[in-house]
Design goal:
Chain lengths: 102, 166
Amino acid sequence: MIPLTWYLLVATALFCIGVYGVLARRNAIAILMAIELMLNAVNLSLVAFWRYLHPTVTTGQVFALFVLVVAAAEAAAGLALIISVYRNRETVDVENIDLLKG
Amino acid sequence: MTLIQAVFILFAILTLGAGLFTVLSRHLFHAVLYLILSLVGVAGLFVLLEAEFLAGVQVLIYIGAISILIIFAVMLTRGMARNPGPPLNNQSLAAAVIAGLFFVLLAPVIAGFPWPQVTQGVPADAIEALGRSLVDPNQFALPFELASVMILAALIGAIFIAREKR
C-alpha cells in the first residue's frame, strides 16, 4: 500500500510548481494555468485525506468537487478578463498591464 | 516495491514533470499541452485513491472543458503566441527560491508527522453515497445549489466581459 506521505509530498511539490509559475511567468494565461496546477494539488491532498482518514464519509470528495466548480468558474471569468484586456491593450503580458499604477 | 507503488511513482513523475514543463515551456501552446498531461497524471492518482468518480470528473471537466477554454484563449491572443519573448519575468530567481523554500519547509513536516495507515476500505456504494449527499437537505444540498448559481453567474459575467463592444 502507498503511504499517505507520498501523496502529500506530490501534492506539495505540485503546489510549489504552481507558486513558481504564478510568481515567475509573464503571460497572464500561463499564470492562470499555474493556478490550475495549484488547485489540482489541493484537490489531490483533499482526496488523499478522504481515502486515508474517513473513506466512509463523503465530505472529502464533496469538497474536491466544489474546488473543481470554483476552478471552472475561475477559468471562465479569468480567461474572459484576459481576452478583454488583450482587446484593449493588445497584450497579455502582465508587466505591461499597469492601468491602475499611480 | 509493489506494483501499485511503481504505478504511483509513474503517475507522480508524469504529474510533476508535466507540471514543471507547464510553468517553464517557452511556447504557450506547449504549456497547455503539458498542463493537460499533468491533469491526466492527477486523474491517475485519483484512480489509485479509489475515487473513480472524481477521476472521471477530472477528465471531463479539466481535460475536456477547462483546457479547451485555455486553448481558445491562447489562440484568441495569437500575437503573443507568435512572438513569445522571454517566458519568465526578472523576478524568476526569487520566485524559484520562494517556491523551493516553501517545499523545503513543508516536506519535513509532512514526512515527520505520524499519519495513520489505511484502516477502512472504500464502501462499495461510495459513488451512490456521494450522489445522495449532494442532494440531501441535511448535508450538501444548499452548497450544491449555491455552487450552481455561482458558476452560472461566473459564466454570464464571462460572456459579458469578453463580448465585443460596439
